[in-house]
Amino acid sequence: MIKITLPDGSVREFDCPFVSGLEIAQSIIEGLAREVIAADVNGEIWDRARPIAHDSKVRLLTWKDDEGKAAFWHSSAHLLAYALQELYPEVKFGTGPAIERGFYYDVDFGDYKFTETDFAKVEAKMLELARQKHTNIRKEIAKNEAIDFFTIKNDPYKLELLEGLSDGTITFYETGSYTDLCAGPHIPDTSPIKAVKLISVAGAYWRANENNKMLTRVYGISFPKKSELDDYLLALEEAKKRDHRKLGRELDLFYFNESVGMGLPLWAPKGAALRENLIQFLRRVQTRAGYQHVSTPHIGKKELYITSGHYAKYGKDSFQPIHTPEENEEFFLKPMNCPHHCEIYNAKPHSYRELPIKYAEFGTVYRYEQSGELHGLTRVRGFTQDDAHIYCRPDQLKAEFLKVVDLVNFVYSKLGFSEFQTQISLRDPANKQKYLGTDEMWNMAESAIVEATQERRMKTTTKEGEAAFYGPKLDFMVRDAIGRKWQIGTIQVDYMMPENFDLKYTGNDNETHRPVMIHRALFGSMERFIALLIESTGGNFPTWLAPEPVRILPISDKYNYYAYEVMRTIMEETDLMVAIDEREEKISRKIRDAEVQKVPFMLIVGEQEMIKRSVSVRKHGAGDLGDMHLSDFIDIYRREMKLDLSSIHA
Ligand SMILES: [Zn+2]
Ligand SMILES: [Zn+2]
Questions:
Q1: 174 C-alpha to center of ligand 1: Å?
Q2: What is the dihedral of CA 64, 70, 72, 77, to 10 degrees?
Q3: Mind listing the pLDDT tens digit for each residue in 380-403?
Q4: Residue 288 falls within a domain, yes or no?
Q5: Model-level pTM greater than 0.70?
Q6: What is the count of structural domains for the chain?
Q7: Looking at residue 263, which CATH number applies to its domain?
Q8: Is 385 one of the annotated active-site residues of the chain?
């Protein structure tokens, strides 16, 4: 008798020595059995036909579940390899996992240059094989047999992978005449794969090591229905229009230049204005929330980062030090602002009554990224963090953590990011030597985070082993236009750096105590945040954030004088920026250009407006608002620029 506990807590009993995910589904309802792809058995994902021999907790997985999609896409990676083996018999295979959207396989094509022109042939072969309904057969296999197999097949990459595996854990999956070294899970056979599309090819070093051979990474995606593929490709086309690199050029926001250096963005006037609007917004919010703004240099002595622990952790992967010519001191480009803030804290004594102390800085930091990793504004080598450090008493930790959580929610909602995800990153309990600090510190910090998220009823995922080396953290993630997930904000508890910098305060017992430190950034990197903001809004920023909120369009140069009068009046009354399009272009052209550049308000002025002291208002995305007196427009403009910050308190 096997007892199976389902996610709703119900228990099903099976009077047989084994039961599979498929049989469990059949016992519930036949329709479900057709949809089940795999099963989560006590937290491990299994093939749906794999026999379960003991009482277990089981969750049945379909295409709708992330793990179901992963099994489907991983099986599609095998199908891709099978098709490539049929078409190019000399190829050798690296690894082929499912990814967030689809799958890839790393392939050694030998001397053959595989390109996009090969895609159609491979896709057709994949569909032909899929229709033949090959079963994905799982086989447990002894290590020496596995080695023999891939030695005969002459597949050096699989042999290298086998070196790291121990006997008793090795499984093969066979699909027709294709055999892969693989832990699974897989869908039962190839027939549910009804639509495939190869997306791109790229170079990828074997095992991500640049000393190894460069393999060809073939990316693809597949679906159980052709219509789902069509929808996906349409969404991909739409998303490409919102790519921040494309919109960044079109809206004249930022540029990259080889002679300045890769991954070092140059902000044009409008991009700089957008950044400044975001900074001003956050500065106001933070001031209300009791933060004090500080400013620190772009470089710091090597010893500073030795004290903070960053050097030991990142020193060898970072930029090389800068040596002074006379004293031979060593400086590093600032990778983090925290050590500098700790030294500000340490500049004078503190009493328990002063805490929490919150130092905020829009601090530009520099981190080495491999050139292949750079991507628009989302991964750069120099970026500005909206960084802050909160120094508090241990008894204040949870309350302060909660305040930051509330601040994150406020700021993201004002900027229209409602779809963010949160992740708690804890220490890997099996690998404690990777982290600084005592068990006691870690337990306190981890429970503060878990309790705070529970108190705010936040839906979070928890990952062990992803904490920073100095403490656990709560990360905030959003997706870009094509659905890739990026980390933006973070809140991290740290008991270590206060130790390293010997931070102190005097308690009400007149004794010396250690404060706890919270590192936090809401935007994370201004650069990455702006990239995601561009992609989520498509460049249609709210008026209060827009780099050019108002543009005056004179119908001809006869009205330029009146246009300047309008500009001066608005600027004097509101302190806000206004531009004039003085080009000798037709008004229709001026309107079109302003629409393309997504200027929120266009004020058209001609004979009638000049006589009536009015403006004809056009709003981007909303069309013509009609003729109105200038003071009425100023009222509308003021309303759109106003932000309600009343819910933020220190
Ligand atoms: Zn596999
Ligand atoms: Zn920090």
A1: 10
A2: 150
A3: 999 999 999 999 998 898 899 999
A4: yes
A5: yes
A6: 4
A7: 3.30.930.10
A8: yes
Catalytic residue, chosen from 473, 528, 590, 618, is 473
46 beta partners: 39
Q: Which two tokens stand for residue 563?
A: 């246009």
- Rounded distance from Cα 467 to ligand 2 centre (Å): 14
How far is Cα 552 from Cα 531, in angstroms, rounded to an integer? Answer: 28
What value does the mean pLDDT take over residues 564-586? Answer: 92
Q: In the predicted model, is pLDDT for residue 483 greater than 80?
A: no
Residue 162 has a pLDDT of: 92
Residue 387 appears among annotated catalytic residues: yes
Q: Which of 537, 567, 594 is the last residue of a domain?
A: 537
Ligand 2 centroid–CA 634 distance in Å is: 42
Give yes or no: 389 in active site: yes
Amino acid at 601: F
469 belongs to a structural domain: yes
H or E segment to which residue 177 belongs? none
Cα 392 to ligand 2 centroid, rounded to whole Å: 14
Mind listing the pLDDT tens digit for each residue in 513-539?
A: 999 999 999 999 999 999 999 998 999
Catalytic residue among 78, 367, 398, 513: 367
Task: Give the ligand whose atoms come closest to the C-alpha of residue 136.
Answer: 1
Encode pLDDT of 235-264 as tens digits: 888 888 889 999 999 999 999 999 999 899
Q: Is residue 649 classed as helix, strand or coil in its secondary structure?
A: coil
Asked whether residue 414 is assigned to any structural domain, the reply reads yes
Shared domain check, 265 and 174: no
Ligand located closest to 338 CA? 2
473 in active site:
yes
What burial class does residue 297 get, using C-beta atoms within 10 Å of its C-beta: 0-12 exposed, 13-18 middle, 19+ buried?
exposed
Distance CA 153, CA 172 (A): 14
Catalytic residue among 85, 286, 385, 492: 385
- What CATH number is given to the structural domain containing 49? 3.10.20.30
* CA 64 – CA 490 distance, rounded (Å): 29
Looking at the fold, whether 169 and 23 belong to one and the same domain comes out as no
Kindly give the distance from the C-alpha atom of residue 435 to the centroid of ligand 2, in angstroms, as a whole number: 16
Total residue length of the chain = 650
What CA–CA distance (Å, rounded) separates 527 from 483? 18
Residue 649 within a domain: no
CATH code of the domain in which 606 resides: 3.40.50.800
- 523 and 412 share a domain? yes
Pair 54, 74 in one domain? no
307 and 392 together in one domain: yes
The parent domain of residue 314 ranges over 254-537
Same domain membership, residue 392 and residue 369:
yes
Among 338, 340, 492, 618, the active-site one is 338
Looking at the structure, tell me whether residues 492 and 625 fall in a common domain. Answer: no
State the distance from the centre of ligand 2 to the C-alpha of 422, rounded, in angstroms: 19
Amino acid identity, residue 35? E
Same domain as 436, residue 297: yes
- Residue 74 Cα to ligand 1 midpoint, Å, equals 6
Among candidate residues 174, 201, 234, the one where a domain is terminated? 234
- Phi, psi (5° rounding) for residue 226? -60, -40
CA of 96 to the centre of ligand 1 (A): 6
Cα end-to-end distance, the chain, whole Å = 60
Looking at the predicted structure, is the pLDDT value of residue 372 above 80?
no
**338: annotated active-site residue:** yes
The active-site residue, picked from 398, 519, 528, 598, is: 519
